[in-house]
Design brief:
The complex is a heterotrimer of chains A (183), B (145) and C (129).
Chain A (H helix, E strand, L loop, with lengths): L1 H25 L3 H21 L3 H25 L9 H22 L11 H4 L1 H14 L4 H9 L1 H22 L2 E4 L2
Helix pairs in contact in A: 1-2, 2-3, 6-7, 7-8
Chain B lengths: L4 H23 L8 H19 L1 H7 L2 H24 L14 H39 L4
Helix pairs in contact in B: 1-2, 2-3, 2-5, 4-5
Chain C lengths: L1 H25 L3 H22 L20 H32 L4 H9 L7 E4 L2
Helix pairs in contact in C: 1-2, 2-3
Organism (chain C): Spectribacter acetivorans
Pfam family, one (chain C): Oxidored_q2
Main location (chain C): membrane
Protein backbone atom coordinates (compact mmCIF):
# COMPACT_ATOMS: atom_id res chain seq x y z
CA UNK A 1 0.00 0.00 0.00
CA UNK A 2 2.84 2.29 0.91
CA UNK A 3 4.65 1.49 -2.31
CA UNK A 4 1.55 2.23 -4.34
CA UNK A 5 1.18 5.62 -2.71
CA UNK A 6 4.79 6.54 -3.39
CA UNK A 7 4.49 5.41 -6.99
CA UNK A 8 1.31 7.42 -7.49
CA UNK A 9 2.96 10.45 -5.90
CA UNK A 10 5.95 10.10 -8.20
CA UNK A 11 3.69 9.90 -11.26
CA UNK A 12 1.75 13.00 -10.22
CA UNK A 13 4.91 14.99 -9.48
CA UNK A 14 6.49 14.00 -12.80
CA UNK A 15 3.36 15.09 -14.67
CA UNK A 16 3.43 18.42 -12.84
CA UNK A 17 7.07 18.78 -13.84
CA UNK A 18 6.18 18.23 -17.50
CA UNK A 19 3.37 20.81 -17.31
CA UNK A 20 5.71 23.34 -15.68
CA UNK A 21 8.33 22.73 -18.36
CA UNK A 22 5.80 23.37 -21.10
CA UNK A 23 4.68 26.56 -19.37
CA UNK A 24 8.28 27.80 -19.13
CA UNK A 25 8.72 27.22 -22.86
CA UNK A 26 5.63 29.22 -23.72
CA UNK A 27 6.11 32.22 -21.43
CA UNK A 28 7.58 35.39 -22.87
CA UNK A 29 7.76 37.25 -19.61
CA UNK A 30 11.20 36.34 -18.29
CA UNK A 31 10.47 37.15 -14.67
CA UNK A 32 7.64 34.64 -14.70
CA UNK A 33 9.89 32.11 -16.43
CA UNK A 34 12.55 32.56 -13.73
CA UNK A 35 9.98 32.04 -10.96
CA UNK A 36 8.66 28.94 -12.70
CA UNK A 37 12.21 27.63 -12.90
CA UNK A 38 12.36 27.91 -9.11
CA UNK A 39 9.10 26.01 -8.91
CA UNK A 40 10.49 23.41 -11.29
CA UNK A 41 13.51 22.90 -9.04
CA UNK A 42 11.30 22.49 -5.99
CA UNK A 43 9.12 19.93 -7.77
CA UNK A 44 12.17 17.98 -8.88
CA UNK A 45 13.45 18.06 -5.29
CA UNK A 46 10.14 16.45 -4.27
CA UNK A 47 10.60 13.82 -6.98
CA UNK A 48 14.06 13.07 -5.61
CA UNK A 49 12.59 12.65 -2.12
CA UNK A 50 9.98 10.22 -3.47
CA UNK A 51 12.82 8.26 -5.12
CA UNK A 52 14.73 7.99 -1.79
CA UNK A 53 17.53 10.39 -2.74
CA UNK A 54 17.51 12.58 0.35
CA UNK A 55 20.91 14.23 -0.04
CA UNK A 56 20.18 15.08 -3.64
CA UNK A 57 16.76 16.49 -2.76
CA UNK A 58 18.34 18.68 -0.09
CA UNK A 59 20.93 20.02 -2.51
CA UNK A 60 18.49 20.53 -5.38
CA UNK A 61 16.03 22.40 -3.18
CA UNK A 62 18.62 24.72 -1.69
CA UNK A 63 20.71 25.24 -4.82
CA UNK A 64 18.08 25.12 -7.54
CA UNK A 65 15.17 26.80 -5.85
CA UNK A 66 17.37 29.16 -3.87
CA UNK A 67 20.56 30.27 -5.56
CA UNK A 68 19.64 29.83 -9.24
CA UNK A 69 16.38 31.75 -8.87
CA UNK A 70 18.14 34.60 -7.02
CA UNK A 71 20.85 34.79 -9.68
CA UNK A 72 18.37 34.85 -12.54
CA UNK A 73 16.20 37.49 -10.90
CA UNK A 74 19.29 39.56 -10.17
CA UNK A 75 20.36 39.34 -13.79
CA UNK A 76 16.86 40.18 -15.03
CA UNK A 77 16.89 43.26 -12.83
CA UNK A 78 20.05 44.34 -14.62
CA UNK A 79 18.74 43.58 -18.11
CA UNK A 80 15.30 43.53 -19.64
CA UNK A 81 12.40 41.29 -18.77
CA UNK A 82 10.53 40.42 -21.94
CA UNK A 83 11.39 38.20 -24.84
CA UNK A 84 10.77 38.93 -28.50
CA UNK A 85 8.97 36.42 -30.70
CA UNK A 86 10.78 34.20 -33.17
CA UNK A 87 9.74 33.48 -36.73
CA UNK A 88 7.39 30.61 -37.41
CA UNK A 89 10.04 29.04 -39.64
CA UNK A 90 12.48 28.90 -36.75
CA UNK A 91 9.88 27.39 -34.45
CA UNK A 92 8.98 24.74 -37.02
CA UNK A 93 12.62 23.80 -37.57
CA UNK A 94 13.28 23.54 -33.85
CA UNK A 95 10.16 21.44 -33.31
CA UNK A 96 11.16 19.10 -36.13
CA UNK A 97 14.65 18.51 -34.75
CA UNK A 98 13.30 18.13 -31.23
CA UNK A 99 10.56 15.73 -32.35
CA UNK A 100 12.94 13.46 -34.25
CA UNK A 101 15.42 13.38 -31.36
CA UNK A 102 12.64 12.74 -28.85
CA UNK A 103 11.21 9.89 -30.90
CA UNK A 104 14.65 8.29 -31.17
CA UNK A 105 15.15 8.58 -27.41
CA UNK A 106 11.75 7.10 -26.58
CA UNK A 107 12.49 4.23 -28.93
CA UNK A 108 15.74 3.70 -27.03
CA UNK A 109 13.99 3.67 -23.65
CA UNK A 110 11.85 0.71 -24.73
CA UNK A 111 14.91 -1.45 -24.20
CA UNK A 112 15.67 -0.16 -20.74
CA UNK A 113 15.00 -2.23 -17.62
CA UNK A 114 11.89 -1.14 -15.79
CA UNK A 115 12.25 1.47 -13.11
CA UNK A 116 12.55 0.14 -9.58
CA UNK A 117 13.47 -3.47 -10.22
CA UNK A 118 16.30 -4.69 -7.99
CA UNK A 119 17.89 -6.92 -10.64
CA UNK A 120 19.00 -4.29 -13.15
CA UNK A 121 22.70 -4.13 -14.10
CA UNK A 122 22.96 -0.91 -12.09
CA UNK A 123 22.06 -2.71 -8.89
CA UNK A 124 23.75 -6.06 -9.41
CA UNK A 125 27.15 -4.52 -10.02
CA UNK A 126 29.40 -5.30 -7.01
CA UNK A 127 30.28 -1.67 -6.38
CA UNK A 128 26.94 -1.03 -4.70
CA UNK A 129 27.39 -3.78 -2.10
CA UNK A 130 31.01 -2.73 -1.63
CA UNK A 131 30.20 0.92 -0.92
CA UNK A 132 27.34 0.08 1.44
CA UNK A 133 29.41 -2.43 3.40
CA UNK A 134 32.62 -0.48 3.45
CA UNK A 135 30.85 2.63 4.64
CA UNK A 136 29.94 0.63 7.74
CA UNK A 137 33.16 -1.32 8.21
CA UNK A 138 36.02 0.90 7.07
CA UNK A 139 34.70 4.38 7.75
CA UNK A 140 31.98 3.82 10.39
CA UNK A 141 29.72 6.63 9.29
CA UNK A 142 26.04 5.97 8.57
CA UNK A 143 25.61 8.27 5.57
CA UNK A 144 26.87 6.21 2.63
CA UNK A 145 26.57 9.15 0.24
CA UNK A 146 28.94 11.29 2.32
CA UNK A 147 31.43 8.47 2.67
CA UNK A 148 31.47 7.86 -1.07
CA UNK A 149 31.56 11.59 -1.83
CA UNK A 150 34.33 12.52 0.59
CA UNK A 151 36.40 9.38 0.78
CA UNK A 152 35.95 6.92 -2.06
CA UNK A 153 35.40 9.58 -4.70
CA UNK A 154 37.21 12.37 -2.89
CA UNK A 155 39.22 13.36 -5.93
CA UNK A 156 36.07 14.17 -7.90
CA UNK A 157 34.87 16.35 -5.05
CA UNK A 158 38.17 18.23 -5.12
CA UNK A 159 37.50 18.96 -8.78
CA UNK A 160 34.01 20.13 -7.94
CA UNK A 161 35.25 22.54 -5.27
CA UNK A 162 37.69 23.89 -7.83
CA UNK A 163 34.79 24.43 -10.24
CA UNK A 164 32.98 26.58 -7.65
CA UNK A 165 36.21 28.46 -7.02
CA UNK A 166 36.61 29.09 -10.75
CA UNK A 167 33.01 30.24 -11.10
CA UNK A 168 33.44 32.71 -8.24
CA UNK A 169 36.61 34.11 -9.74
CA UNK A 170 35.02 34.22 -13.18
CA UNK A 171 32.05 36.23 -11.96
CA UNK A 172 34.40 38.60 -10.12
CA UNK A 173 36.41 39.17 -13.27
CA UNK A 174 33.34 39.66 -15.45
CA UNK A 175 31.25 41.87 -13.22
CA UNK A 176 33.27 42.81 -10.20
CA UNK A 177 35.40 45.64 -11.45
CA UNK A 178 34.09 49.17 -11.58
CA UNK A 179 33.02 50.66 -14.86
CA UNK A 180 32.99 54.16 -16.20
CA UNK A 181 30.95 55.10 -19.25
CA UNK A 182 33.03 56.48 -22.07
CA UNK A 183 31.81 60.01 -22.73
CA UNK B 1 13.68 47.83 3.00
CA UNK B 2 14.69 48.90 6.47
CA UNK B 3 11.57 50.95 6.94
CA UNK B 4 9.43 47.83 6.78
CA UNK B 5 9.25 46.95 10.45
CA UNK B 6 7.75 43.50 10.06
CA UNK B 7 10.34 42.40 7.52
CA UNK B 8 13.17 43.73 9.63
CA UNK B 9 12.01 42.12 12.86
CA UNK B 10 11.22 38.76 11.27
CA UNK B 11 14.58 38.77 9.48
CA UNK B 12 16.40 39.49 12.72
CA UNK B 13 14.56 36.61 14.35
CA UNK B 14 15.11 34.04 11.63
CA UNK B 15 18.62 34.77 10.34
CA UNK B 16 20.42 33.42 13.43
CA UNK B 17 18.47 30.19 13.15
CA UNK B 18 19.25 29.89 9.46
CA UNK B 19 22.97 30.28 10.17
CA UNK B 20 22.76 27.83 13.05
CA UNK B 21 20.96 25.31 10.88
CA UNK B 22 23.71 25.66 8.29
CA UNK B 23 26.29 24.76 10.92
CA UNK B 24 24.15 21.82 12.03
CA UNK B 25 23.89 20.49 8.48
CA UNK B 26 27.63 20.91 8.00
CA UNK B 27 28.67 18.89 11.00
CA UNK B 28 25.92 16.26 10.88
CA UNK B 29 26.49 15.43 7.25
CA UNK B 30 27.87 12.07 8.24
CA UNK B 31 24.89 10.96 10.30
CA UNK B 32 22.06 12.19 8.16
CA UNK B 33 21.47 14.00 4.92
CA UNK B 34 23.67 17.01 4.60
CA UNK B 35 27.29 17.87 4.17
CA UNK B 36 29.37 20.72 2.90
CA UNK B 37 27.41 21.80 -0.17
CA UNK B 38 24.03 22.08 1.47
CA UNK B 39 25.49 23.83 4.50
CA UNK B 40 27.36 26.37 2.40
CA UNK B 41 24.28 27.22 0.37
CA UNK B 42 22.08 27.59 3.47
CA UNK B 43 24.63 29.87 5.13
CA UNK B 44 24.83 31.97 1.98
CA UNK B 45 21.04 32.11 1.84
CA UNK B 46 20.99 33.57 5.35
CA UNK B 47 23.47 36.25 4.36
CA UNK B 48 21.54 36.96 1.14
CA UNK B 49 18.38 37.48 3.20
CA UNK B 50 20.30 39.91 5.39
CA UNK B 51 21.49 41.78 2.30
CA UNK B 52 17.98 42.00 0.88
CA UNK B 53 16.52 43.48 4.06
CA UNK B 54 19.31 45.70 5.32
CA UNK B 55 21.11 46.73 2.15
CA UNK B 56 24.37 45.89 0.44
CA UNK B 57 26.48 48.33 2.47
CA UNK B 58 25.43 46.80 5.78
CA UNK B 59 26.12 43.32 4.44
CA UNK B 60 29.51 44.45 3.15
CA UNK B 61 30.32 45.58 6.68
CA UNK B 62 29.37 42.18 8.07
CA UNK B 63 31.33 40.25 5.44
CA UNK B 64 33.85 42.53 3.74
CA UNK B 65 35.07 41.69 0.22
CA UNK B 66 38.46 40.53 1.43
CA UNK B 67 36.72 38.01 3.70
CA UNK B 68 34.68 36.67 0.78
CA UNK B 69 37.80 36.20 -1.29
CA UNK B 70 39.53 34.53 1.68
CA UNK B 71 36.59 32.16 2.13
CA UNK B 72 36.53 31.12 -1.50
CA UNK B 73 40.24 30.37 -1.68
CA UNK B 74 40.51 29.09 1.87
CA UNK B 75 38.13 26.23 1.28
CA UNK B 76 40.04 24.89 -1.70
CA UNK B 77 43.23 25.28 0.33
CA UNK B 78 41.81 23.27 3.23
CA UNK B 79 40.71 20.50 0.88
CA UNK B 80 43.92 20.25 -1.10
CA UNK B 81 45.91 20.80 2.10
CA UNK B 82 44.32 17.72 3.64
CA UNK B 83 45.45 15.73 0.62
CA UNK B 84 48.97 17.08 0.82
CA UNK B 85 49.06 16.41 4.57
CA UNK B 86 48.19 12.80 3.85
CA UNK B 87 51.09 12.66 1.43
CA UNK B 88 53.46 14.21 3.95
CA UNK B 89 52.41 11.65 6.54
CA UNK B 90 53.37 8.83 4.21
CA UNK B 91 50.18 7.83 2.37
CA UNK B 92 48.84 8.68 -1.04
CA UNK B 93 47.11 11.95 -1.94
CA UNK B 94 43.78 12.04 -0.07
CA UNK B 95 44.46 8.69 1.64
CA UNK B 96 42.89 9.50 5.00
CA UNK B 97 44.00 6.27 6.68
CA UNK B 98 47.33 7.80 7.70
CA UNK B 99 45.87 10.86 9.41
CA UNK B 100 45.38 9.23 12.82
CA UNK B 101 46.58 6.21 14.71
CA UNK B 102 43.65 4.09 13.59
CA UNK B 103 42.46 4.04 9.96
CA UNK B 104 38.79 4.52 10.92
CA UNK B 105 39.62 7.61 12.98
CA UNK B 106 41.79 8.88 10.17
CA UNK B 107 38.93 8.50 7.70
CA UNK B 108 36.58 10.32 10.06
CA UNK B 109 39.04 13.19 10.52
CA UNK B 110 39.71 13.39 6.81
CA UNK B 111 36.02 13.53 5.97
CA UNK B 112 35.36 16.28 8.53
CA UNK B 113 38.21 18.41 7.20
CA UNK B 114 37.26 17.88 3.60
CA UNK B 115 33.60 18.71 4.15
CA UNK B 116 34.69 21.83 6.02
CA UNK B 117 36.71 22.90 3.01
CA UNK B 118 33.75 22.30 0.73
CA UNK B 119 31.37 24.23 2.97
CA UNK B 120 33.70 27.21 3.27
CA UNK B 121 34.22 27.51 -0.48
CA UNK B 122 30.55 27.13 -1.32
CA UNK B 123 29.63 29.78 1.26
CA UNK B 124 32.18 32.22 -0.08
CA UNK B 125 31.31 31.49 -3.69
CA UNK B 126 27.57 32.01 -3.34
CA UNK B 127 27.92 35.13 -1.18
CA UNK B 128 30.55 36.58 -3.50
CA UNK B 129 28.50 36.00 -6.64
CA UNK B 130 25.44 37.58 -5.07
CA UNK B 131 27.38 40.62 -3.84
CA UNK B 132 28.79 41.14 -7.34
CA UNK B 133 25.33 41.06 -8.93
CA UNK B 134 23.85 43.36 -6.32
CA UNK B 135 26.74 45.80 -6.55
CA UNK B 136 26.53 45.96 -10.33
CA UNK B 137 23.02 47.33 -10.36
CA UNK B 138 23.85 50.13 -7.99
CA UNK B 139 26.82 51.32 -9.96
CA UNK B 140 24.78 51.45 -13.14
CA UNK B 141 22.14 53.63 -11.54
CA UNK B 142 24.85 55.96 -10.40
CA UNK B 143 23.41 56.44 -6.96
CA UNK B 144 25.80 56.41 -4.09
CA UNK B 145 24.28 55.35 -0.83
CA UNK C 1 0.32 -1.18 -18.47
CA UNK C 2 3.33 -2.49 -16.63
CA UNK C 3 5.54 -1.12 -19.38
CA UNK C 4 3.87 2.25 -18.91
CA UNK C 5 4.43 2.23 -15.16
CA UNK C 6 7.93 0.89 -15.51
CA UNK C 7 9.06 3.38 -18.13
CA UNK C 8 6.98 6.47 -17.29
CA UNK C 9 9.89 8.05 -15.45
CA UNK C 10 12.11 7.78 -18.48
CA UNK C 11 9.47 9.09 -20.87
CA UNK C 12 8.96 12.16 -18.73
CA UNK C 13 12.74 12.56 -18.65
CA UNK C 14 12.83 12.48 -22.45
CA UNK C 15 9.97 14.98 -22.62
CA UNK C 16 11.69 17.41 -20.26
CA UNK C 17 14.97 16.95 -22.09
CA UNK C 18 13.30 17.79 -25.38
CA UNK C 19 11.55 20.83 -23.88
CA UNK C 20 14.89 22.12 -22.63
CA UNK C 21 16.52 21.34 -25.99
CA UNK C 22 13.73 23.15 -27.84
CA UNK C 23 14.12 26.22 -25.64
CA UNK C 24 17.86 26.32 -26.31
CA UNK C 25 17.63 26.02 -30.08
CA UNK C 26 14.26 27.61 -30.77
CA UNK C 27 14.41 30.80 -28.73
CA UNK C 28 16.63 33.78 -29.36
CA UNK C 29 16.71 35.31 -25.91
CA UNK C 30 19.92 34.50 -24.05
CA UNK C 31 18.31 34.29 -20.60
CA UNK C 32 15.65 31.95 -21.95
CA UNK C 33 18.36 29.72 -23.38
CA UNK C 34 20.00 29.53 -19.96
CA UNK C 35 16.67 28.56 -18.42
CA UNK C 36 16.28 25.85 -21.06
CA UNK C 37 19.75 24.57 -20.22
CA UNK C 38 18.73 24.31 -16.57
CA UNK C 39 15.67 22.30 -17.54
CA UNK C 40 17.80 19.93 -19.59
CA UNK C 41 20.24 19.42 -16.73
CA UNK C 42 17.48 18.71 -14.23
CA UNK C 43 15.92 16.11 -16.52
CA UNK C 44 19.25 14.26 -16.71
CA UNK C 45 19.42 14.28 -12.90
CA UNK C 46 15.97 12.70 -12.70
CA UNK C 47 17.08 9.98 -15.10
CA UNK C 48 20.11 9.07 -13.03
CA UNK C 49 18.21 9.01 -9.75
CA UNK C 50 15.43 6.91 -11.32
CA UNK C 51 18.04 4.41 -12.46
CA UNK C 52 19.35 4.16 -8.92
CA UNK C 53 16.03 3.76 -7.15
CA UNK C 54 14.51 0.46 -6.04
CA UNK C 55 10.87 -0.21 -5.21
CA UNK C 56 10.38 -0.19 -1.47
CA UNK C 57 13.92 0.89 -0.71
CA UNK C 58 15.04 3.48 1.78
CA UNK C 59 17.60 6.26 1.68
CA UNK C 60 21.24 5.09 1.73
CA UNK C 61 21.75 6.07 5.37
CA UNK C 62 22.74 2.90 7.14
CA UNK C 63 20.78 1.90 10.17
CA UNK C 64 18.76 -1.10 11.38
CA UNK C 65 16.22 -1.33 8.57
CA UNK C 66 14.96 -4.35 6.67
CA UNK C 67 14.47 -2.61 3.37
CA UNK C 68 17.17 -2.53 0.70
CA UNK C 69 19.11 0.68 0.31
CA UNK C 70 19.02 2.88 -2.76
CA UNK C 71 22.21 2.90 -4.77
CA UNK C 72 24.50 5.62 -3.33
CA UNK C 73 26.68 6.16 -6.37
CA UNK C 74 24.16 8.00 -8.62
CA UNK C 75 23.40 10.26 -5.66
CA UNK C 76 27.05 11.22 -5.39
CA UNK C 77 27.36 11.87 -9.12
CA UNK C 78 24.23 14.00 -9.18
CA UNK C 79 25.31 15.99 -6.11
CA UNK C 80 28.43 16.98 -7.98
CA UNK C 81 26.44 17.66 -11.14
CA UNK C 82 23.95 19.97 -9.38
CA UNK C 83 26.69 22.13 -7.92
CA UNK C 84 28.61 22.25 -11.21
CA UNK C 85 25.32 23.22 -12.88
CA UNK C 86 24.83 26.18 -10.58
CA UNK C 87 28.41 27.29 -11.16
CA UNK C 88 27.83 27.15 -14.93
CA UNK C 89 24.56 29.07 -14.57
CA UNK C 90 26.24 31.77 -12.48
CA UNK C 91 28.95 32.30 -15.08
CA UNK C 92 26.42 32.19 -17.92
CA UNK C 93 24.25 34.78 -16.25
CA UNK C 94 27.27 37.03 -15.63
CA UNK C 95 28.16 36.78 -19.33
CA UNK C 96 24.57 37.63 -20.30
CA UNK C 97 24.69 40.75 -18.13
CA UNK C 98 27.93 41.88 -19.74
CA UNK C 99 26.60 41.22 -23.23
CA UNK C 100 23.52 43.26 -22.44
CA UNK C 101 25.66 46.13 -21.22
CA UNK C 102 27.73 46.03 -24.39
CA UNK C 103 24.99 45.58 -27.01
CA UNK C 104 21.90 46.75 -25.08
CA UNK C 105 19.98 43.70 -26.24
CA UNK C 106 19.47 40.12 -25.12
CA UNK C 107 18.33 38.88 -28.50
CA UNK C 108 20.78 36.61 -30.27
CA UNK C 109 19.81 37.70 -33.79
CA UNK C 110 20.16 41.39 -32.93
CA UNK C 111 23.56 40.82 -31.38
CA UNK C 112 24.82 38.83 -34.36
CA UNK C 113 23.52 41.52 -36.71
CA UNK C 114 25.33 44.18 -34.69
CA UNK C 115 28.53 42.13 -34.84
CA UNK C 116 28.20 41.65 -38.61
CA UNK C 117 27.74 45.31 -39.39
CA UNK C 118 30.82 46.05 -37.34
CA UNK C 119 29.00 48.24 -34.84
CA UNK C 120 31.27 49.03 -32.02
CA UNK C 121 29.65 48.03 -28.75
CA UNK C 122 28.92 50.78 -26.26
CA UNK C 123 32.35 50.90 -24.78
CA UNK C 124 33.33 51.35 -21.25
CA UNK C 125 36.73 51.86 -19.84
CA UNK C 126 37.76 49.59 -17.12
CA UNK C 127 39.56 50.99 -14.16
CA UNK C 128 41.32 48.00 -12.75
CA UNK C 129 40.73 48.62 -9.11
Amino acid sequence: MDDLMIEALTLVLLTLLAVTGLAIARLRNLFAAAMLTGLFSLLSASVFMALDAVDVAFTEASVGAGITTVLMLGALALTRGREKTVTKMRTAQALLVTGVTGAALVYATLDMPHFGQPDTPVHTHPVRAHYLEASEKEIHIPNAVTSVLASYRGYDTLGEVTVIFTAGIGVFVLLGTARRRRR
Amino acid sequence: MTEHTILRVVAKLTIPFILLFALYVQFHGEYGPGGGFQAGVIFAAGIILYTLIFGLDEARRVIPPWAVRALISGGVLIYAGTGVACMLLGGDFLDYNVLAHKPAHGQHLGIILVELGVGVTVTGGMIGIFFVFAGRGRRREGTVE
Amino acid sequence: MSTFLGLYNYWIVVLLMMIGFYIVIGHDNLMKKLIGLNLFQTSVFIMYISAGAIDGATAPILGNVDAPYAHPLPHVLILTAIVVGVATTALGVALVVRIHEAYDSLDESEIIAACDTGDEPAGEHRDNA
